[in-house]
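Review box. Two proteins, two foldings.
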Amino acid sequence: MALDAAYFDSIYIEVVKRKYYDAAKVQAVFEDIRRRAEELNEENARLRRELEQHNERRVELGDALLSAQSVYQDVVDKARVRADAITAEAEKRSQALMAETRRESEQILARSRKQEENAARRVEAAFDRMKQLHLASVDALNAQWQAFLCSLDGEEEPESVQAEPRPAEPEPEELPADLEEKVGAIAQELFAMEQE
């Protein structure tokens, strides 16, 4: 029971002989008040200690929170710096790779053009050679045919046929292995063009 107004209102000490209070009862009331006051003092001291502990914990928690926030901010700042560095490095490497890829593409394209031009020259040379051989074969066949016709009539070969020397065949060049396929494809294309 606390030392409040209700407690003090509940104290009743009889007056003896209408003049004096009963000393034992007064003493008992004072003892009870002292005892309760000591209990209240002890409880008050305990509550103060708890309050101080709570305040200390609150301060510690506040310090820990500030420290955690500082560490968090440090981590975030370092992570941001690291992420920026990684992004910059990745962008730099990406640009270098793109430039290298572009260079390699241009080199491959240039080599491809040279190979195409070289292949076209070879095909053209082979075609010219075939044309010369074909014309020489036609001339030789024509000469043989005229000689045969002349022999049927009992005439001698015309001097133009006898005197005409055959053109010297040029030395064959070393031709690519797939020349026959390329020439066949060109012949098919020429034949298709003639059909149109």
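Next protein.
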Amino acid sequence: MSVIGFPLSPVLCALGIVQIFGIVAAGAARLAEGTRHERSGQWLCLAALATVGALCGAALQCGPDAGATCAVTLALMTLITVVDFRSAA
């Protein structure tokens, strides 16, 4: 008997792990800004963006909900890396 009440697909679990990795990589790249680790953070974020972007198309095979979740993750990663949240003052 499953603890959570429904069976989990290994593919969906892998998609979730990659999405979490993508959000963490985008946040780490933002936090590394201005430090000596900035370049490696940017390369990590670029690799994560490419991975999540490629998975957006592949996730459609699992259903529209999985594809939409990947697309939202990709949009959040882009916002985290592009938008400057510091005050303009």
